[in-house]
Amino acid sequence: MQPETILIICAHNDDQIIGMGGTIAKYAGQGKKIHSMFFSLGELHVALFRKDIIAKKRYYESKKADQILGATSIEYLGLPDGKIAEAISERGREQMKQLILQKIVQFKPEKIFTNATDDSHPDHRAVAKLIQDLIDEKKIQSDVYVFEVWHIAKLKDRHLPKLVVDTSDFFKKKIEAFKAHKSQKLVYLQFIWKIYLKDRLNGKKHKGKYAEVFYKVN
Ligand SMILES: [Zn+2]
């Protein structure tokens, strides 16, 4: 039997760590193949260096984070951080959708994880909207789940079916992967408590120590 395949499509390389790092580590431990596609490397957050140097650094950092979690492959589409919606329009919406569909055909994922359409970050919404379009056009057969990135408060309209993954045994790995983004260290250190709090609250609600929660949109 072929191992189950997971495809993660998100705006920035750290979205997946924050939103589902524990789940990635858990799934990898179960032998699942996990492929990620990032629209941008989040190079905007660091003002001290040239953007191209930061992008390169962040590429290696996300490879390292991926290694820690045990994921299979990453791909970086090179769209500018903070301007993903504009870049999608420039490159052509249909072309970008085709690119995503090609990946889906290549990997045949059982599950796709992506950003949420009601996320407060415009980059996250831009990526989520592309996937939602493909769902509306009935071009995606796989189950699709969305995750939140920074919010502790619940997203709107979450009457959708939930997927709760108990990540108690993998929370440490998630933090380790998060810390692998060394170029972001100062920014990230301020946020670790948020990850801790969110995963801990989700864990408590679902009778575990830590948990990550996803909503099924397809
Ligand atoms: Zn992001």
Give the helix/strand layout:
Elements: E1 5-12, H1 15-29, E2 33-40, H2 51-69, E3 73-76, H3 84-91, H4 93-107, E4 111-115, H5 122-136, E5 143-147, E6 162-166, H6 171-179, H7 185-189, H8 192-205, E7 211-216
Parallel strand pairs: 1-2, 1-4, 2-3, 4-5
Antiparallel strand pairs: 5-7, 6-7
Helix pairs in contact: 1-6, 2-6
Bound molecules: zinc ion (ZN).
Describe the 3D structure.
This protein has 218 residues and is of the alpha/beta class. The protein has one domain (5-216): LmbE-like (Rossmann fold), CATH 3.40.50. 46% of the residues lie in helices and 19% in strands. The chain contains eight helices and seven strands; from the N terminus they run βαβαβααβαββαααβ. It has a seven-stranded mixed β-sheet with strand order 3-2-1-4-5-7-6, with helices on both faces. It is globular, with a radius of gyration of 16 Å. 42% of the residues are buried. Bound molecules: zinc ion. Zinc ion is lined by residues 11-12, 15, 121, 123-124, 149.
List keywords for this structure.
218 residues, alpha/beta, Rossmann fold, 7-stranded mixed beta sheet, 46% helix, binds zinc ion
